Write the structure tokens for this entry.
Amino acid sequence: MDENKLITFFKKKRKDFPILKQKVKGHDLIYFDNGATSQKPQVVIDSLVEYYTKYNSNVHRGIHTLSEEATLKFEAVRGRVAKFISGNEDEIVFTNGTTQSLNFLAGGLSHKVTKGDEIVISRMEHHANIVPWQELCKRTGAKLKYIELTDDGRLDLKSANKVINDKTRIVSIAHVSNVLGTVNQVKDIIKLAKKFGAYSILDGAQAVPHMKINVRDLDCDFYVFSAHKMYGPTGVGVLYGKYSSLEDLEPVNFGGSMIYEVFGEESTYNKIPFKFEAGTPNIADVIAFEKAINYLEETGLDNITKYEGLLTKYFLEKISQVEDLTLYGPKNPKDRAAVFSFNIEGIHSHDMSSILDKFGIAIRAGHHCAMPLMANYNVSATCRASLGLYNTIEEIDKFIEVLKKAKSIYEKGDIF
Ligand code: PMP
């Protein structure tokens, strides 16, 4: 598709998202907070309503029509997710989100870590990929090591070469930064982890909505992500693991469904992946998740990457014209997804977010659950605009217009 066709194609997609039709503070809603969560197309919303109105029932247990239908639909999604990322069905564990997936990994690999070992993450991680490892280190006596960043917000491979060594047991890094938008050189990092026999984990929360993911090609041990950032429902996450790596993982949640047999004193566990899914799963949302995957595939991941690349290039050009603005992260559009963190001198990010909200523009302000990264840049907070497939060039223009007059609005005290 050439550029004009691509733009027309994606403009039409907006009508699939009912929430985007509304006005906020008298303006057409411009939703630039997709990094926090994306909006949902009608097909996803319909699927949730259909489940609760037609076949709400628990899965894996009942021998009755509704339960069989729910189980069939629920289990079909496992295969769908596997195909979506080029894994196998028995390598997909459903969780309630990226955070839980990472906690399952930190807890489930703890028996592989002892005093003196090292866990490696990077300076740009989300708290979900920091705190579980800090906790694991506290319990085992292992040390947490950081891959530092280059000046333009990329992983410094020299630093990676230094910190990943024969003491390293686990390397866990973001595929795409939720603050800087950096698309990390994950294959280099995975290779390094392999060289020293360490497990490699990718936090794909910000990558999956923007690009085609192939876990076989990446060759990582584990890949984790959340449905709600990929136009799917909240409360569903994925923990992909290579089968042999899942064999090394111990369950951290115990109870119904994850067992094979329970005796008075001990139990045996179900096979992989079911032994990692204790209790009633989030049935309705997992089933609706499939609709989001279908939506992404029908739109075409390559089209999405291309279109968002076009928006990124345009955004970077336009934002460089705003005075007194610092943009964090890579300057080259090729190195980043459509996630942009910035500050305007003299205006706190919370005030900036309020100014934009007056014009119906939703961004995020704060530390973005990445306090070590904020410390790295010597700031306490930034503004973050994160774009999705329904955003447009015209919306970027409106956004830049407001940024250009933000100082005068702020100086007049006309924020709320
Ligand atoms: N990692 C990254 C890179 C993220 O952006 C987020 C969500 N902001 C998370 C992890 C946590 O995801 P969730 O809240 O869906 O568990």
Notes: The pocket of 4'-deoxy-4'-aminopyridoxal-5'-phosphate is lined by residues 97-99, 126, 128-129, 174, 178, 203, 205-206, 226, 369 (CB under 6 Å).
